[in-house]
Amino acid sequence: MGAVGLLTLSVLSGGAGVYSFGSSCDLGGLSKVRTEQNTLVYAADGSLLGSIPAQHNRQVVPIASVSTWMPTATIAIEDRRFYSDGGIDPDTNYDVSAPFTHRLTAAGTCDDGSSWCVKTYDSTYDGWTSISRATLRSDHTVYAELTLDVGPKRVGEMARKLGVLSELEVDGHDVPAMGRGSVAVSPLDMASAYATLAAGDMYSEPTAIRRAVFPDGKDDTGAGWNAPKRTRVISDGVAWKVPQILEDNVRYGTGTRASIGRAAAGKTETTDRHADAWSVGYTPDLATAVWMGCVAGEIPMENVHGIAVSGGSFPAEIWRLLMERTIGLRPAREFAEPKALHRYEPFVRGPLSLSYDPLYMAPATSTETDTTAVDTTAAPLPVRLSVTAPPAPKP
């Protein structure tokens, strides 16, 4: 195939500096993607608890379509200014992971586009699942329901507050599919929004000019070059919750190849047919967005050095290499504790979300009896149907 475009943008979390790195790079030196054979189980502190042997190769999460918009949607559902009840705790609030259809009209169908039909990339589902787990699995069905509960307008408002400057509306409206990453944004948008999370609660307006010098050699000090323009947009308690989830993604989710051996939070994303691949993340000091794709258009990257490019492959490794050579030269820091933990209160799910798991199979029961005994064997645990279906077309 032709040259693959690469764009990397980094934004300092505490200031306004923007650094960009672009090339049509030679990916020959990058290591081959390795699929884990066993499922590994980790504790919250990252220590290995054990493994679940597998007969065939397995992955902790699907390789594709881990939306970098998910932190924005998570922030929107947590921000107390959007809900008088204090927001949604992503660890204790559950939604249904299952094929989801939102009909715009009573006679709407998935085929003609009159209904919004959402599936996961590999058509596997968890049933009732926490928002935190859905984030790690890149479960778009859960986030579709959450976006409808919160309201796409609110998700769009939060994205703009965090630093997304690209046009988000479609025909003058914020669309529900926004929470799944269907609206195109720039690497600068993503680096800027993640820098706001890295800073804890402060948005810093990016600038590409750090210093201006007059012909006589004197610095232009009157125009405010490189002077941070900062605005508090969320509480530090809300911002602190995001790396609690996204650090796990770097430890054992799709972002493992971005691990730099220190505190780092990140997500990956792969668009339909592997046309674009992202790895976006941050440390306490620096946020970086890596995008791979073809500038000429959405051309599939399905055979680059023998693999289909996903966000967790080359982009994640490029993110790691860049961070090791920049922030990795500084002493390691942990994400700062918030001044006050966010207070969550009970949340009532909206009427558009699934109220039951459509893939649940009721446990079998025994009714056999004879004249002398009753079968008291315990019924087996509930089992889930395995569903295989092609991915739904992107709205």
Description:
A hairpin with a 5-residue loop joins β11 (265-270) and β12 (276-282). A five-stranded antiparallel beta sheet has the order 2-1-13-12-11, sandwiched between helices. A two-stranded antiparallel sheet has the order 3-4. It has a two-stranded antiparallel ribbon with strand order 5-8. The chain has helices at 70-78, 131-137, 140-150, 152-162, 187-198, 236-252, 314-324, and strands spanning 5-12, 18-23, 39-42, 48-52, 94-97, 100-103, 115-118, 127-130, 202-204, 230-232, 265-270, 276-282, 286-293, 360-361, 383-384. 20% of the residues lie in helices and 18% in strands. The protein has 395 residues and is an alpha+beta fold.
User: Topology as H/E string?
Assistant: EEEEHEEEEHHHHEEHEEEHEE
N/C terminus separation: 28 Å
Radius of gyration: 23 Å
Instruction: Give the helix level as a range of percent.
Output: 10-25%
Percentage of residues in DSSP E strands = 15-25%
Report low-confidence residues grouped into runs of 5 or more. Answer: 56-65, 80-85, 369-395
Overall outline: globular
Indicate the structural class: alpha+beta
Please state the average pLDDT score.
77
Query: Could you give a short account of the major beta sheet?
Result: 5 strands, antiparallel
- Biggest β-sheet: strands ordered side by side in the sheet: 2-1-13-12-11
- Number-wise, the strands total 15
Number of DSSP helical runs: 7
How would the blueprint of this fold be written?
Blueprint lengths: L4 E8 L5 E6 L15 E4 L5 E5 L17 H9 L15 E4 L2 E4 L11 E4 L8 E4 H7 L2 H11 L1 H11 L24 H12 L3 E3 L25 E3 L3 H17 L12 E6 L5 E7 L3 E8 L20 H11 L35 E2 L21 E2 L11
Antiparallel strand pairs: 1-2, 1-13, 3-4, 5-8, 6-7, 9-10, 11-12, 12-13, 14-15
Helix pairs in contact: 1-3, 1-4, 1-6, 2-6, 4-5
